[in-house]
Input
Amino acid sequence: MVLSPIKLFLYALAFHFSSGRGRCFSPGFKALAVWYASRAEMLLFDRSAAKWWRGQLERG
Amino acid sequence: MPEKLILRDWQKIRTWLEPRIEAGQVRLISLDIFDTLLARCVEPPVIVQHAVCRAVGKQVGMAPSLVWQARQEAEQALRAEAVAAGLDHECRYVELLPRWMENMFKEHDPALGRSICQTELSLENASLHIKPDAQVFMDWVREQGVRMVAMSDMYLNGDLLGELLGRKGLLHYFDNVYVSADYKEGKYSGRLFRRMLQRQEVRAGHVVHIGDNPISDRRMACKEGLQGVWLYEKKDLRRRERLALSARMAQRGGIWVGRHFFDTVQTRIQQNDGLNPRNFFFRYGRDVLGPAFSVFMQGLQERLNRQLQAKQPVEKLLFVARDGFLFERMYRELDEKLPSEYVYLSRKVITAASTADGLDHAQAIVAFYNPKQQGLESVCKVYGLPEEALQPLAREHGFANFAEPIHNWEDTRLHNFLKDQRVQSIVQRVGRKHRDLLQRYLEQVGFFAHKRVALVDIGWNGTVQKFLKQAFGKRADFPILHGYYFAFVPKLYNDFGENNVCEGIVHDSRRGNACERIPAEFEEIFEQGARSWEGTTIGYRDCDGRIEPVLKPDSAPDRQAELRCNASVARMQEGILCHWEHYRAVQQLTGYASQQVLPYVHGLLERAVVYPTAEETRELTRLVHTEDFGHDNVLALGNRAFGVRDLLRPQQVWNRMKVAAWRYALLDKIPTGLPNFAFRIAYLHTVEK
Output
């Protein structure tokens, strides 16, 4: 039920290459970039892990 | 100072507690409520408050943004007053409610207050579920004979939170519920822990507090002498982060709104139904057809509301057999609904009645749209005409074989046959009989008793609606008809006449949007998912003055095939109804309109139809499809998939592709989705031109 945005982007390309009207379920390139940048940020700067380390390192 | 405890799951907490309970060191366990015992399917939690404001705005006829502003002002004022009184930064819902209403209407209406309060509780209840591991833990604690209390930093006061816990079936676990709103003292300042210890008359050293917040639930508890445990559930934190990102992306519009919506629906389904093993058809109904049919039902509801607001209300909804069966069941689940009925109509009985004034060429060729048409025999089957009476007349006009397919629709023999008065007289006699019975059936279901009636069906050509108007449109009491279809593709007819409106909600070919055409590329699966388990209506009979439908007998070859598929269809419909339940809850919480969700649903259907998984192809091609246009034909949904050798015969491949019910299933044996992608481009090129 939850599709990866890149899949939707690729599916919409078929419309882009045929009728040129493939925008309807395409996430849009810019939004796609924002999405993956946010995911990468979540992975690299793992806030919950940072919280865990903070908890581990704090006194008492 | 108690030890530093950061534990990753409830099982680890239990392992740590077990020896201490046995040693009598633990007398009371205090549990945080939100994100510890109960998890939300929406993130951030403020979405629930926005949903409350939308519901209140709708109830009092005020813009949700103004309702939200009034609430924020009241809440901030109360929190500031608490701080000024030397208490914590807290506010109580029972104090918030009158202040909020005064901000909106300059007066406090207790009845409205109670209604808002119930709305808030209902929406909170819809967004929350019990974490299964937490409940197992609480059952274990109770078996150990250790008392439990619940604690929360929350604006709902204790009795309301108690009611919420009661709705979730958790209240009986606790001796008491301590909420920051009641005392204006929070866990984060340590004051609520002190209050709890004093009330429970227990020493801090004998109490363990468990919660998901490292500051409030561990550090502050430990500072007050309780054993604080920070429950660090990585998976849960990841889920919340993912949902929060989805919500942020939804602000960009486009497919992101739908993606956020279905991310929330999926989370809710997993939280409530994730542990149940489900078979393929249930999952297909829940995850593929469920979103499509649910957005259709929401679109239908929105259109009915628009009619109401325009002071042209639809007075009765008729769900047309057989594919309206599931839609009627889904409609029954709604809170606000119009009088509705499931009506036994089919293309066969409607077309038969439409011949009461004779059969013209335009009507006759409708039978030839079927790829398996058998000329005049098909015309007789479609219109319920007596073959034995018409066969000799057909021979006179040059039809040696009555079942000979007629590919040239302008065949002179056909024109002459239809001009023959003897043919028309037989047709009219039978047609009048069909029309009289149908008319009586329609009167019985109240079709003519309302000014404005809606027909709800899966699609595709609007045959029933077209022929109803044709057969009875001259009656003075014929209603204004609104046809709401899942997908509307008027290939057969364009003119539906005056006061006869048709609209495809998920797909309407007149909108000219190639991306939404996907339901028309595999119509059969949508019909299978929505259809009734009964046979199609082939006529009516008079049973002591009451008109009863006559259904196709179970002995018919196509019906036999259908009966074998009924169990799978039933599982699919269970899955769709399961989805619908969660869809409605999430719709209330997010407030998204069907138009906002629809682009994502088109993407979802594109995936399911054009890029099916191996399991989907294997299971769905076991289903068979039948049509209700008078034949006993069975259409297999699957054909032999292409192999590598077939690639050497491209013309043959193309021809098979053109006639297949589900073209993309033929590519099942070729790995990767690339052939599907390439074929999709090629196919879109041909249909666009």
In short: The radius of gyration of chain A is 19 Å. Chain A has a mean pLDDT of 87.
